[in-house]
TrEMBL record, chain B:
<dbReference type="InterPro" id="IPR050490">
    <property type="entry name" value="Bact_solute-bd_prot1"/>
</dbReference>
<feature type="signal peptide">
    <location>
        <begin position="1"/>
        <end position="23"/>
    </location>
</feature>
<keyword id="KW-0732">Signal</keyword>
<protein>
    <recommendedName>
        <fullName>Sugar ABC transporter substrate-binding protein</fullName>
    </recommendedName>
</protein>
């Protein structure tokens, strides 16, 4: 009696894995399609509002765009050559670069200082964390209004405080030399986002390291320099990159303090790159030039970030690395 | 990377661009409503924008205009005008029928063909702009021989005097004379007080950046030529900046003056006149309204701002109604704006103001409408002696300077010219640059802006 099917033919033995692979591929494809469908709202949003807008702005940057007719006529590279010819671009870039060099280290230092303070708090830590985070929740307009009063060169609280020690404070919002530091001060007020990242990193530093270092005789400064800073270097690196990008895009503080209307006193020292870009686009309708400015800023930020990634990452300790 | 992935990467930017282009809006003015001569009977729905914070005067006029246009449904967006929002609304095809904006914006939009010329609108409603409004008001919105907006308000500046501070320093009204710098500076110095290097009383607050155009034009300068091109580097403009620098230097320097004036409680009980923080200050016509509740605490007077020739001088902006290119109901928009600025609308406004003052207290300083007929009617019918001789003299002074009004000059780069002039004033007063250098830099930037706007047509 022949037992049909009891002994599979060699051909059948060969086909089984192929069939399984085919079934697996079909399943993989279905899974991939389902995945793409699930994230499609984000993809569409990204394509339209980010990628699409970026590419559209690149197109506009090579044109003279007319808002009235919604048409653009070719401009070649004239918008880009205007970046060199317009002295205000260099001024705005210089101001922005100076601001970034001043703001980023101070924001890092102040945020780390606050995070270290909070990390040492035992009872009521949650309340303190909330309190420290509140400035981040304050609208920029409100913060600007407060700092407009605080930084008044004659009657502001900061100069009143300095006057108590016999120091005549600067004219923060009028003297061109002190305009950028005054905006940095305003940014430091809202540094709690950076602080929270530092705080999370500090919480992850193993306590044993401090205990061992203490047994070996290391003081607080030594422990901070030799343990804390290396262990949170990845958070520091992240914060430096994010804050640098934000510094290059500084707009709202400067705009609110100095450029909110034409009758306001607006020293050239407060002309930041994004402010000038805004003026070109929405006051002068120079959309092609504004788009070229945006792309120059994009390239600068990319270059700076690349340099930071290339060289900064060598100084960073990642726990998973050997 | 697999072939399909490479294809996807290549196609994505194209798809993104296509999607972005498709969402690019309604095409701005290119989809403008059919050409109109504004003579059609106003009907349908009219959408207006930027009618924020309408007070009793504004509300009464809008009620009046609505009453004249029974067949029109008026839908007003009462948020403030914002140039970015206006730009994006036009680009997106979401075009209101009428927009209220500052007159200094009008020519910029006119030069971009973003708004409609209104000569036919005025003709359709039998309005002669040059008689309904002061010529210098119409000149603010006239460009290339067309009138681009329905103007309203002209609130001239004059110099408000704080008699207590002046009397204490032995300064008389005639010494606050902007046409006589030496006498003025002596008076300023006599009234100025400081404590530890910080000003406590300014002899004269010239409002250097807020009224920069007034100072330059009154001292013989000019901001634009007849075509609207900026002329900031005209050597005649230096006199105004130099005089401002002398005034601020005599009071501790611009930085300290600016910080001091920034700290004024301008609208409050401890305003700069009540607190004796100024001996004299350049102010627009509306400011005496703010001071009227405090007449028990201050002794006020006023003198005209005088030009180099010694005659009173005034220059001021105001607001206006424009009809954007692409407005769907321009006929109704035109009729509505014209009705809002009619003499009867202003009478309704004056009645409303009178009622408000009777209910809440306060003194009637009149309304400065931009229209000579309405101004005179309101002065004759509603402005009565207050019992405070100083305040009555203040009100009279503002009416007096109306006859000496001038336009800032209509230019496609009007906003930039004002902004650059302020930058030049700031740089000069801080001592960063000489007046000539600062004005030269300002001219360069303003000229660039002018060419951008005009060249982009």
């Amino acid at each position: 009696m022949v037992q049909l099917g009891a002994e599979p033919t060699p051909v059948a033995r060969v086909d089984a894995p192929q069939a399984r692979r085919r079934t697996g591929r079909r399943f993989d494809r279905r899974e991939a399609v389902a995945g793409y469908l699930f994230i499609s709202p984000w993809i569409v949003g990204f394509l339209v509002f980010t990628a699409g807008a970026m590419i559209y702005s690149l197109v506009i940057s090579f044109s003279h765009y007319n808002l009235a007719t919604n048409t653009a006529r070719a401009a070649g590279t004239s918008n880009y050559s205007q970046l060199i010819e317009d002295p205000r671009v260099a001024t705005a870039l210089g101001n922005t670069l100076f601001y970034a060099l001043l703001a980023v280290p101070l924001e890092i230092a102040f945020a780390l200082f606050l995070a270290t303070l909070l990390n040492g708090v035992g009872r009521g830590a949650g309340a303190f964390r909330t309190l420290f985070y509140l400035p981040k929740m304050t609208p920029v307009v409100a913060t600007a209004a407060i700092f407009f009063l605080l930084l008044n060169g004659n009657s502001g609280a900061i100069n009143q405080f300095l006057r108590a020690f016999g120091i005549e404070g600067p004219q923060w919002l009028v003297d061109p030399m002190w305009i950028k530091p005054s905006i940095v001060l305003m940014q430091l007020w809202a540094v709690s986002g950076t602080m929270v990242i530092f705080l999370a990193a500090l919480k992850n530093v193993p306590r044993e390291l401090y205990e061992v270092a203490s047994i070996d005789g290391a003081g607080p400064v030594r422990r901070f320099v030799s343990i804390t800073l290396p262990m949170i270097s990845s958070a520091t690196f992240f914060n430096v990159i994010v804050l640098t990008i934000a510094a290059f895009q500084i707009f709202d503080s400067a705009y609110l303090l100095f450029w909110r209307d034409q009758s306001n006193s607006s020293p050239e020292a407060s002309l930041f790159y994004a402010v000038y870009l805004f003026q070109q686009a929405f006051r002068q309708f120079n959309f092609g030039f504004a788009a070229a400015m945006a792309w120059l800023l994009f390239v600068i930020i990319m270059a700076v970030t690349f340099v930071q990634m290339r060289f900064g990452s060598r100084l960073v300790y990642y726990e998973g690395d050997r | 990377m697999r072939k399909t992935q490479r294809c996807a990467v290549a196609v994505l930017p194209v798809l993104a661009l296509a999607l972005a282009a498709c969402s690019g809006g309604g095409g701005g003015g290119s989809e403008a409503a059919a050409a109109t001569d504004f003579s059609g009977a106003p009907s349908g729905t009219m959408n207006g924008w930027a009618f924020d914070n309408a007070d009793d005067v504004g509300t009464a006029r809008m009620d009046y205009a609505a009453g004249q246009l029974d067949d029109v449904t008026i839908d007003l967006d009462q948020t403030a005008f914002d140039s970015q929002k206006f730009t994006t609304r036009i680009a997106g095809g979401d075009v209101p029928d009428v927009v209220q904006m500052d007159r200094r914006f009008v020519t910029t939009y006119a030069a971009q063909d973003l708004i409609l010329p209104l000569d036919e609108c005025f003709a359709a409603h039998d309005v002669d702009p040059d008689t309904r409004w002061y010529p210098f008001v119409v000149d603010d919105v006239r460009y290339e021989d067309k009138v681009w907006a329905v103007p309203q308000f002209y609130q001239p500046p004059a110099i408000l005097l704080n008699k207590e501070v002046m009397d204490a320093a032995g300064v008389t009204d005639d010494q606050i004379d902007t046409s006589d710098p030496d006498t003025l500076l002596a008076a300023v110095t006599a009234m100025y007080k400081e404590s530890s290097g910080v000003p406590t009383t300014l002899g004269f607050d010239p409002v250097a950046t807020g009224q920069a155009g007034l100072w330059v034009l009154a001292t013989g300068g000019r901001l634009t030529d007849d075509e609207g091109k900026p002329t900031l580097d005209d050597p005649a403009n230096e006199a105004g900046l130099d005089l401002l620098k002398q005034i601020t230097d005599a009071q501790g320097g611009f930085a300290k003056v600016k910080s001091f004036t920034d700290s004024f409680d301008t609208f409050g009980e401890e305003n700069q006149f009540v607190a004796d923080q100024v001996g004299a200050q350049v102010n627009a016509q509306w400011y005496p309204n703010v001071l009227s509740p405090y007449l028990d605490s201050v002794q006020l007077a006023a003198v005209p701002f005088r030009g180099a020739d010694g005659e009173p001088f005034s220059v001021a902006s105001g607001s206006a109604f424009v009809i954007p290119a692409g407005a769907k109901n321009p006929d109704a928009a035109c009729a509505w704006a014209v009705e809002l600025t009619a003499a009867d609308a202003w009478t309704a406004a004056a009645d409303a103001r009178k009622a408000t003052l009777e209910e809440n207290g306060g003194l009637n300083t009149g309304l400065f409408t931009g229209s000579p007929e309405a101004d005179q009617a309101i002065r004759d019918g509603y402005v009565v002696p207050t019992g405070n001789a100083g305040f009555d003299q203040v009100v009279s002074t503002y009416y007096e300077v109306l006859d000496y009004g001038q336009t800032f000059g209509s230019s496609p780069a009007g906003q930039e010219i004002e902004s650059e002039l302020n930058n030049a004033v700031t740089a000069t007063l801080l001592g960063d640059k000489s007046a000539a250098e600062a004005l030269s830099d300002a001219q360069e930037a303003a000229q660039r802006a002018y060419e951008t706007v005009v060249g982009g047509r």
